[in-house]
Amino acid sequence: MDDKNLYEALSYAPKHVNDIMTEALKEAAFAYCEGYKHFLDVGKTEREAAAQALAQAQAAGFVCVSDKDTLSAGDKVYALNRGKAIAFAVIGRDSILNGINLVGAHIDSPRLDLKQRPLFEEESMAWLKTHYYGGIKKYHWTATPLAMHGVICRTDGKTVHICVGEDESDPVFTITDLLPHLSQEQMQKQLSAAFNAENFHILCGSLPMGGEDIKEKVKFGVLSLLKDKYQITEEDFTSAEIELVPAAKARDVGFDRSMIGAYGQDDRVCAYAALKAFIDASGEGVPDRTYICVLVDKEEIGSMGNTGMRSRFFELFLSELAAKSAGACDFLTLNQILSKSKCLSADVGAAFDPHFPEVSDKKNFAFCGCGILVTKYTGSRGKADSSDANAEFVAEVRAIFNKNDVLWQTGELGKVDAGGGGTIAQYVANLGVDVIDCGTPLLSMHSPFEIANKFDAYMTYKAYHAFYLSK
Q1: Do 134 and 37 share a structural domain?
Q2: Is residue 61 domain-shared with residue 181, that is, in the same domain?
Q3: Residues 289-345 pLDDT 10s
Q4: Alpha-carbon radius of gyration of the chain
Q5: 401-426 burial, b if ≥16 CB within 10 A, otherwise e?
């Protein structure tokens, strides 16, 4: 072997999709992404994403685990948690006591939530107060069309579903911004201080209603419309979950349509891949090893709450699977199962942007078109809040991907002291599970229009599919 071939054999550099491109691969990736774009459009909130996942699973023959007294190899079951998190399982031939293969993703995204007392009138206009959710750049959310999604729960037990701004005939909502002619003082401020989150008010009406005895006529007009259309009063907002999200639909990006631009790709690009791979794998016969897909809420605010990964939802689901397939599941048994289990924390990473190279270590950063991103550790600075996968498990994941022709790359979230971020991986690791972060790299992450490469999204699907069925 000459020196050049020896060097190539010994060295490592991630491949680009161009190195393996075929017409069949392009057709498969583009076809896969059509389903993904639809999922983005109809699942802009955690409730909607969970509902879409449930519908797809039920169509594939999954049944609620609580409806089964016992479980045997090949059974396909799910559990829904408060409409905002969901888990699926296919029971394998091997005892669940030997562990499971898990892919976990989150289905919440940064957004604006209405406050509990949101509606007020000022200067003959009606406004709604908001509280932002997750990490956002506030300037992204002004002077842009917004859609309203969510639920309002009335005291009579009825839940009213809201979705306004997605249909072409719908009105939209917006947050006003200062015109450039008068914004000299605003533009002198630091970016973080130029936009006051307390003033993130949604413009929602300007038409007055009522006689002279009505002090706030525009507010009265809005309340009357809400009563007529949804049979709700102002007090009902106190038991509502209303979210404002970008009104735009997912679109192809570029002359060659090789990318997708959309809101909420963090983390629904991974959530859809995890779900689609899971359902496809479930139709391929009885597996050797039980595998589970879990889609959870609240990751963008630390995975807290009873629908987040730090809740007992996953442990309860796994305990029920063990009790109904292995006969019993006490505390010791559950923890032994977890210690023998393996997980891909399905979350996105940052893709290298040549316009902002100063925050990136190019030798250890992800690139669009190089496949799914494997991140050994996340966290910030000194690996704070990171699970840091062990080397043995990283090697196992590498072997699975290489065996199944998955295009993959490694990367970190920026330079060591540039910032950082976290995923659900640390909470899964705290249960005793081997886990590593593994997902699609994005440009413009946490913006209203995130960008994903179609081939990276497709390789994410292939990676999860191979992992579910691994022994």
Answers
A1: no
A2: no
A3: 999 999 999 999 999 999 999 999 999 999 999 999 998 889 999 999 999 999 999
A4: 24
A5: beeeebbbbbbbbbeeeeebbbbbbb
